Amino acid sequence: xxxxxxxxxxxxxxxxxxxxxxxxxxxxxxxxxxxxxxxxxxxxxxxxxxxxxxxxxxxxxxxxxxxxxxxxxxxxxxxxxxxxxxxxxxxxxxxxxxxxxxxxxxxxxxxxxxxxxxxxxxxxxxxxxxxxxxxxxxxxxxxxxxxxxxxxxxxxxxxxxxxxxxxxxxxxxxxxxxxxxxxxxxxxxxxxxxxxxxxxxxxxxxxxxxxxxxxxxxxxxxxxxxxxxxxxxxxxxxxxxxxxxxxxxxxxxxxxxxxxxxxxxxxxxxxxxxxxxxxxxxxxxxxxxxxxxxxxxxxxxxxxxxxxxxxxxxxxxxxxxxxxxxxxxxxxxxxxxxxxxxxxxxxxxxxxxxxxxxxxxxxxxxxxxxxxxxxxxxxxxxxxxxxxxxxxxxxxxxxxxxxxxxxxxxxxx
Length: 413
Known about the structure:
Structural class: alpha/beta
CATH class: Alpha Beta
CATH architecture: 3-Layer(aba) Sandwich
Helix content: 10-25%
Distance between the termini: 32 Å
Shape: globular
CATH superfamily: Alpha/Beta hydrolase fold, catalytic domain
Largest sheet: 9 strands, mixed
CATH topology: Rossmann fold
């Protein structure tokens, strides 16, 4: 699930990646807490750094990965818009041959499926058949290819030189990869096709909202550190109209052949003085807003957010989507956590919350669950209860302006 951020949104300004070092994000964070009752992070063990998964180095490829004892693993191909994607299946060896509920996973901005394997193993141990995949042009998957010269006059099969396009951000293409992944999983005889869940974080946290709004095969979803509105907005973009104009100019340059797609794994400013791995294509990102589709989501939806989200407004993303979904819903807020803590110190709590949600929504009655299911839990939980700051750190003014939903008038002027 992966790197994120409401970007500075100067989309055409990218820097080719030379080397990516593991980047640690401060837990302290400068942004104030959103007004959601949090649960504390697990402080029992050593501090786990908050790291953008897109910057992790040395993760084994699908062909080189060897799972823990008791965990089965295999790779397969998904065909998505005629591009081969690499699927990675994970399940508990003791469930070999059983028809199981399935959970589909894919990463967020700039990360790869390899960064999701720890979560996948936890879900497999909990009794799920887990399928994670890389988007086209990322990780172990193929990318789209373009002819480097004119197409031969003859049609059909021909020999040509091509260029593979990789390492860019196109949320519309990624969403199609998700839909094709669902079709692939639903056709697998090992899968209970009536019990398919999806989980995504960051940019993928918005993708799963789009999926659930448009595909009835999604029976439950989990959205972590939800980034569901990429349209430029204040205060994270000081000049939204300028950013949109720049993105549209980049789109025109690509359409007229004056520019090509961004360089593979180019960097994009994240609005916080850092950068994200992967640059968006033209104006495709500034038009992506699955939060507006949340009204069409009837599948049970769990949102796991971080109290000190520094890269975008929770209120304009995860909390707003939570308020809009029509089906069962629940909000979990990780106290004192920043965005990347969901992959570090808060990872165990986040995945346990996801397992409990899927257990309640996907498993048949009587099936083993991680913890006893609380049948009295409200079907529609609260999305915005009063904030509960840490003891001794109460602030009279409450949540700061950085986490209030930006006014409509501030979005494009």
